[in-house]
Design goal:
Elements (H helix, E strand, L loop, with lengths): L7 H48 L11
């Protein structure tokens, strides 16, 4: 059922090692920084796609010729 590289036991071991290395306080800071980075990346991707949608250059917005 759980085949592959990231099995539940492997994820648990990785979490324990990260907790030992960073400690509980620092680990929450790392998680918060990672979340901010992901939000910034998504925001930049959406801002990049907005001009395409407004100009009608996006292939998904073109009407189909039926």
């Amino acid at each position: 059922m759980f085949e592959g590289l990231f099995q539940p036991f492997h994820l648990l071991v990785i979490l324990v090692i990260a907790l030992i290395i960073f400690g509980p306080g620092k680990l929450s800071d790392v998680g918060g920084s990672l979340g901010k980075a992901i939000r910034g990346f998504k925001k930049a991707m959406n801002e990049d796609e907005a001009p395409k949608r407004l100009e009608g250059k996006d292939d998904d917005t073109k009407p189909s010729a039926n």
